[in-house]
Amino acid sequence: MDGRWRDVGVLAGALFAVNVLARLIIRFGFDGDDTAADRVSLAMFAVIGLILAVVAFRWARRRPLADWAADMALVVLVAMALTVLVGPLLIAHNPFAGGAATFFAQIWLYLLAAGAGVVVGYLVLTALGRDYRSQQLKRYAEVKAAKPRRVVRR
Questions:
Q1: Residue closest to 10 by CA, chosen among 61, 45, 59
Q2: Of 2, 27, 53, 130, which one has the fewest beta carbons inside 10 Å?
Q3: d(Cα 126, Cα 138) in Å, to the nearest integer?
């Protein structure tokens, strides 16, 4: 159980670190250039989606969907809360300075990128037949095929 919570914390921290890095790049490299800032934000969301796709791919091989999906949802919610509420404070901005529309747009974009990453990672794994459930069914079929038929005597 300790390793499970450690994995959740490390992943949430990594996703938050990606956001902080993107904010620092925008702040020091492209301050005032909205087009470049939008591109860096888009790249940040793509990296977050890619990280979550890889993690979903790895977790879905080892554990049933019900086990890792709850952990993934917790990771996304914690990382999103840190990104939306704490991230702007690190670069001396108010999280609500852009208004409600900007605040909720950040939330929806984060959820979209995270959801797309998780779904893509899981669907690729399932398409390859390497997910936990497919492996269980494969082992079941092998066991049933390996047993000799019982001869019925009359």
A1: 59
A2: 2
A3: 13
CB atoms within 10 A of CB 87: 18
Cα-Cα-Cα-Cα torsion 10, 15, 16, 21, nearest 10 degrees, comes to 120
Q: Is 63 helix (H, G, I), strand (E, B) or coil?
A: coil
Q: What is the pLDDT of residues 65-82, one digit of tens each?
A: 888 999 999 999 999 999
Residue 43 has a CB neighbour count (10 Å cut-off) of 13
Amino acid at 19: N
For residues 77 and 146, the answer to whether their CB atoms sit within 8 Å is: no
The pLDDT of residue 1 is above 70: no
All residues at 6 or more sequence positions from 110 whose CB lies less than 8 Å from its CB, including other chains = 45, 48, 76, 79, 80, 83, 84
Token duo for residue 130? 């390497």
At residue 52, the 3 state secondary structure works out as helix
Q: Are 101 and 35 in contact (CB under 8 A)?
A: no
Token pair, residue 54, equals 């890889």
